[in-house]
Amino acid sequence: MDLEIKCTEQQYTAITSDFSPDTLLGIKAGPGSGKTRTIASRIAYLLSTQSQSGMRPDDLLVLSLTNRSVNDLRARLRAVLGPMACQIPVMTFHSFAGKVVGSKYTDWNILDDDDLRRLARLVDMGRSASSMAELRSHLRDARRSTSDVAVVARIVEMFGSTRVFTHDDVLEECSSLLHSPPKFVDNYKVVFVDEFQDVYPAVMNLVLQISKGRHLTLAGDSDQSIYGFLGASFRHNWERLMERHPKPNIVHLNQSFRSTPEVLQFANAVLGHSTPVHHSVKPPCGLPPLRLSFTSPAEEREFIYDEVTRLVDISEGAIKPSDIAILSYTNREVDSVLNYFSERGRFGLCKLNSNPRWLQSPLSFFMQYVRVLVDPRVNFPLLCSLSTVPSIGEATLRKAISLATEHDVPVYEYLHDSGYEKPKKLGMLPHYVKYIAKCRSELNQNDPDQILVTLLRMGKELGFDKVLGAEAFTKDQLLEYRLHFDTIYSTLQRAKAQKPPEHTVLSYFMENYNNDTLVTSSSIKTSNDNEVNFSTIHTAKGLEFPIVFILSGNNYRFNDTQRRVLYVGMTRASSLLYFNKLSNQFVDGLDHAPKPLFSTRAPNWTSESVSRLLTDLGRRPLTKVHQLASKLAHAAL
Ligand SMILES: Nc1ncnc2c1ncn2[C@@H]1O[C@H](COP(=O)(O)OP(=O)(O)OP(=O)(O)O)[C@@H](O)[C@H]1O
Predict the structure, then answer these.
(1) Can you list the domains of the chain with their CATH numbers?
(2) What is the pTM of this model?
(3) Start and end of every UvrD-like helicase C-terminal domain (predicted)?
(4) What are the residues facing 165 on neighbouring strands?
């Protein structure tokens, strides 16, 4: 493959830098400087005839932390490489770890947060756990107090025949398995890691192990490190790498292609950089970030709605709702503005999420049925599936677990196999297990239609419809569920089109339901022009929007991590930034930012400022904009 790369001199140096074994390239760069684009181009170069590397797509391993970042990398690779991009293994660290663990064990299972809560209920923890960390700390306490030791023992006994891991356990297990790696890992020759600033210690151990004896390319920006609460430290990670590579290749990309100089200067002020390391290649737009102060969140919501309406109207539609992102630190603040927009109904709304939306709805429970249909011998999904049947209580389930443990077989085998005598205490449990066996035997696991119908039938038979509270559905909920079913169905269909021969549609779906090879990009980023984007700053990382509102709601006496979160949020804006605060909030650290300071008045849009904004957006000139802008400006006075 021959390659033509459009890039800056610094990017070219990074793209073509040495990739021989046991070397390190660090791409250190600011927001919008083309890190991800440079990684994609470097991979294209590596596979091209120019590099003479003779490497094949599956010699490479490309890792990042979040699904969003992995999706972005895949999209960029498709743009430069076309269909060949599909052959390059690009995955999250957790997927990679899952692959390694899955290559060693067949009987393993991951528990997510919901699973853990169900587990806590099932074993009578007596204390609820709203997060994995909380549950883990309960378990740690339990080990110390004799009265709770029995609880922990029961958990261990229950899953004695199954390996059960939390997401973080999988990373640890993978690390220990990599001491004698599976064959597919041996094949990798070059490793790429994006978003290096967010690599936390358990992931860093993997980076060190997987890159041993191979070339490693890293890209990151310490100013965008926002996962400090997980222990991520760019400096510390880099020092650990330096021990192995005392003379790494380092390329700094200091030109920013995304934001206007005005936005960059303001964002740098938040970080306290008096002399910014990165400069914008764009000419000044003439629109400094707008700093607005509100007396209450209600007033702020009203302003944002009016301002979005004004921007769309004043530009005669040249500014589309999808150009606008409303970002905040927490989901609660984002949702309150989103609900306000939703009540007014004018705009479509897109809440950005790194997971498909159906996985945040109760329908995510269907994944337990999927797991049971693929392999009913794994205890956890079977027990979850049976736990919704009204006539089966937790005592019955526990009885089944202990009997199966006595016979040293999975719960499914004990209940299904007529060779084992079953006490009356088990009630209807064997009947429902037979029902599951029947569903499995009648199901063609390669037929998306049948799979969806089977999942729905199982839901009805096993009492899941009652969990949903089907009688109380509102019209909107029904519409939402219909959309979720559409997504599940189209995901199954894509699984059918993409699955390798050794998989069934169902098993491929089970392994990839959360992965963008199956999930359309629309669930990650809106494709509808009429939808305003809403997101936490963490989820919006790596994305860019012409116009960004950063909501108030934080106490701005922020610490370093909070500053970096704001920096990430602000640098999502390519043209226009609104930075809000409440009037009783103290905004620390912005004293040196360009004037004017926070204003309590809505911006006074003139025909000139609208034209500037549209020029920066590269949108067509407007016919009536002059009249409209002066009319609106007049009305605002
Ligand atoms: N040499 C270039 N010429 C033109 N546009 C470029 C160039 N390099 C990057 N860009 C553009 O700049 C924008 C930012 O690029 P990219 O997303 O790769 O940056 P990044 O450093 O990964 O951003 P972030 O730090 O926010 O994740 C993209 O729209 C990209 O296409």
Answers:
(1) 9-101+180-253 (3.40.50.300), 109-162 (no CATH), 261-355+524-636 (3.40.50.300), 359-392+408-513 (1.10.486)
(2) 0.74
(3) 261-542
(4) 110
